[in-house]
Amino acid sequence: MAANEPLVSREYAGQHASADAPQPAAAKAPVAKTRRRLFTKYVALFVAVVCIALVSNGVFDVLFYYQEHKASLIRIQREQAEAAAAKIGQFIKEIESQLGWTTQLPWSAGSIEQRRFDALRLLRQVPAITELAQLDATGKERLRVSRLAMDVVASGADLSNDPKFAEAVARKVYYGPVYFRRESEPYMTLAIAGTRRDAGVSVAEVNLKLIWDVVSQIKVGERGHAYVVDAQGRLIAHPDISLVLRNTDMSKLAQVRAARASASGAGTGDNAPETVQEAENIEGRKVLTAYGSRRPHGRPDPGVAAGCRAPR
């Protein structure tokens, strides 16, 4: 047995050494685990920073695109509204020019039949004029021709105190308010005084249905549309004809107030009216708006304003 004792001792020593061998690996395990945790945190932080940067850049791009798109849409609406207002203004000016030549000669220079012939020719040349009355220098009606009623010669009706005579004599031209005949179509009275006092005044009733055609041709996106109001803010043309026939008052809308102020020339410099780009429509919905207006020469009120709107 004595000879075997070193063997036992060596075996024991080997077992002791084998038991002590894993201690260095066990000591390294927490360090590696800590490193993995730090690496994971750094990766997560890096990913979070990149994601925040990408999201922020995306949000900025979306906001920039929205503002650019809105500005572009408003610019297009303004161009269309101004073009519509210009077309309406040109329409009125052409009628004014055609009506003007009926006041070139004094009443003493021609017969009533010749004047009646000239009046009928004017009605043929200008379909928008449905009725023409000619007044002498004292304001008495001498002739009236119409598409809707019998012609009247020498009625003698005294219109000397009527604005369409008095203002036409004073300003050479008179634009009456828009009115609706038979609850269907908008009309306006246009009166022109001759360059000579004894030439009298020609008074025309003008059908403004052409304005409906102008408005119906304007398209702003998928749901946008245009409309026209008169000097008092009353609706005279709109894609929804029922609103027009109900004589809808649009004067309380911010965009209509701005258009009327712009047309009347109210406010200059620092007091200039603010351009309204976002407002509520007649239904109370938020919309983008733009407008164009025309003030006829010699008229004290704003005239007509054409507005375009599109949903926000």
Provide the descriptors you would attach to this structure in a database record:
312 residues; alpha+beta; Beta-Lactamase; six-stranded antiparallel beta sheet; five-stranded antiparallel beta sheet; 11 strands
What is the topology?
Layout (H helix, E strand, L loop, with lengths): L4 H16 L2 H78 L11 H14 L3 E7 L5 E6 L5 E2 L9 H9 L1 E9 L3 E9 L7 E7 L1 H8 L8 E5 L5 E3 L3 H5 L8 H11 L13 E3 L5 E9 L9 E8 L1
Antiparallel strand pairs: 1-2, 1-6, 2-3, 4-5, 5-6, 7-8, 7-11, 9-10, 10-11
Helix pairs in contact: 2-5
Mean pLDDT across residues: 76
CATH superfamily of the largest domain: PAS domain
Question: What proportion of the residues is helical, as a percent range?
Answer: 40-55%
- Please state how the strands of the largest beta sheet are arranged side by side: 3-2-1-6-5-4
> Unreliable segments (pLDDT under 50, ≥5 consecutive)?
7-21, 267-273, 298-302
Rg measurement, Å: 41 Å
* Main sheet record: 6 strands, antiparallel
Work out the strand percent: 15-25%
CATH topology (fold) name of the largest domain: Beta-Lactamase
Order of helices and strands: HHHEEEHEEEHEEHHEEE
Number of helices: 7
Count of extended strands: 11
Dominant shape: rod-shaped
Total domains, how many? 2
**Which class do the helix and strand fractions yield?**
alpha+beta
